[in-house]
Design goal:
single chain, 272 residues, alpha/beta, Aspartate Aminotransferase, domain 2, 2 domains, seven-stranded mixed beta sheet, two-stranded antiparallel sheet, 9 helices, 14% strand, globular
């Protein structure tokens, strides 16, 4: 089951590599070579990836108003950029600890919603997979014209849901292939933005991104729905949660033990 003895290990959410993923990835190219030495060669792959993922996310969130799109290293690059451009940030209690840790390192003050200059939230919620409270915050940000970044790293590992960002003028949506599609070390993510992000645009404008990783990601998107992991492992996850005497969460990859996350990926992997 769980071989790693570091006490932090079970609190760290690991992605689940379904055997069917590996069968598809066998056909992935080892490396993108840019044989034609043209920008078009790069951007055809990038654009296809963006179009496919935008279509996959359509039932969850309408991205049509977000005209700017950037390939990022996981979601982390987008978070680094967003948080570092804040002086007073609002985050939710128990949200992804990286938000708070990076803010502390950069000297960024964590404040209430009414006092902040930016907001970052995860949806599904990184603590329990919940998606109920985030919409209220999105609407509040729209009313007060507060810029908000929505981190959708756990999309596909919880029950399907819908978010409305139609009223937000300053919004970014970030998604990565790490959790649901089990490509955490390929560091492939996309970020859609209502406004141009000059920092993220520097390398994106010449397609200087991880195209080999994008090609691997594209194969998985072509063959598996966005909620494949949730649909195929929900029943097994519930049983393991009960067997381990954990508290149920909305995410199939972890439960709670003494109010802390307890990742069950290894148990699910043994069943796959």
């Amino acid at each position: 089951m769980i071989k790693e003895q570091n006490p932090y290990w079970t609190k760290l959410t690991k992605s689940l590599r379904d055997p069917e993923f590996d069968k598809i990835l066998i056909n992935a190219p080892l490396s993108f070579s840019n044989n034609d030495f043209t920008l078009l060669e790069r951007f055809k792959i990038i654009k296809r990836f963006e179009n496919t993922l935008r279509s996959k996310l359509k039932s969850y969130i309408n991205l049509s108003q977000l005209k700017h799109c950037y390939v990022i290293n996981g979601i982390t690059e987008g978070l680094n950029n967003w948080i570092s451009n804040s002086t007073k940030l609002h985050i939710l209690k128990n949200d992804y600890t990286y938000y708070e840790r990076l803010s502390n390192i950069r000297g960024i003050e964590l404040v209430d919603l009414d006092s902040c200059d930016r907001v970052v939230i995860s949806c599904p919620f990184s603590y329990d997979g919940n998606t109920n409270t985030q919409q209220d915050i999105i609407y509040q940000c729209a009313e007060q014209d507060i810029p908000i970044l929505i981190d959708m790293a756990y999309l596909g590992t919880t029950n399907p849901f819908t978010l409305d960002i139609s009223k937000n003028k300053q919004v970014q949506i970030a998604y990565s292939m790490s959790k649901h599609y089990a490509l955490p070390f390929d560091r492939i993510g996309l970020l859609w933005s209502s406004q141009e992000d000059q920092s993220l645009n520097i390398l994106n404008q010449v397609g200087y991104v991880n195209i080999t990783g994008i090609q691997r990601a594209q194969l998985l998107l072509n063959h598996f729905d966005i909620d494949y992991i949730y649909k195929n492992y929900k029943q097994s996850s519930d049983k393991i949660i009960d067997q381990l005497n954990l508290k149920q969460t909305e995410c199939v990859l972890f439960g709670h033990k003494d109010a802390e996350k307890y990742c069950i990926t290894e148990y699910l992997q043994d069943l796959s």
